[in-house]
Write a structure and sequence with these properties.
Structural class: mainly beta
Largest sheet: 4 strands, antiparallel
Strand content: 35-45%
Strand order of the largest sheet: 3-4-9-8
CATH topology: Elongation Factor Tu (Ef-tu), domain 3
Number of strands: 9
Order of helices and strands: EEHEEHEEEEE
Shape: globular
Number of domains: 1
Distance between the termini: 15 Å
Radius of gyration: 18 Å
Length: about 180
């Protein structure tokens, strides 16, 4: 864990030589931290996290009968993170610009010593670690969507929904758990 923040989203491969979470937060690192030691002034919070896993089910049509279903494995793992940042641009920290940059630049990277072909985004949620992932050559999150909301009645507050999609090998369970 890089800081006292309870949650963090980061992009690997630029200021980090590995997929690990950056250890500092001064505005230049590719990380956004939340909850207790969070972005700017402890007023960045994650409001909710939604986790969706879907199975790919093939339908074998049967005339005059109920169609037979075939489980063909996991179709997708998607994490939706809803958050709010009060005073989002203070002391050089600008999470909206970071999200914008992350969306406009490559979501995967394959450079010497920085190999993230499956996705270069990591996630840490201390209170819900089943979703935690440090990007590797085998797996990573891809930031596929970011929505910003600025409520006109509340100045100095930015709300967002970020969508992370799991890509790569799900691995094998260890002790009954899939650890990423």
């Amino acid at each position: 864990m890089a800081s006292a923040a309870q949650s963090a989203i980061w992009r690997a491969g630029t200021t980090t030589g590995a997929g690990t979470e950056p250890t500092t937060q001064n505005g230049t690192e590719d990380i956004i931290e939340f909850n207790s030691g969070a972005v700017v002034n402890n007023n960045g919070v994650l409001i909710s996290t939604k986790f969706s896993m879907t199975s790919a089910v093939a339908v074998n049509e049967m005339p005059s009968s109920i169609d037979k279903l075939q489980d063909t494995g996991v179709n997708g793992i998607i994490v939706y993170i809803t958050g709010s940042i009060e005073h989002p641009k203070t002391d050089g920290l600008d999470p909206a610009q970071k999200f914008k940059t992350w969306m406009l630049e490559d979501k995967t990277i394959n450079e010497t010593n920085k190999v993230f072909p499956k996705g270069r985004f990591g996630l840490r949620l201390n209170d819900f670690n089943a979703l935690n992932l440090t990007p590797t050559a085998d797996r990573g999150y891809i930031l596929s969507d970011v929505e910003f909301t600025r409520n006109g009645e509340t100045s100095g507050k930015l709300e967002f929904i970020a969508t992370l999609r799991f890509n790569g090998s799900i691995g094998t369970p260890s002790g009954g758990k899939y650890e990423w």
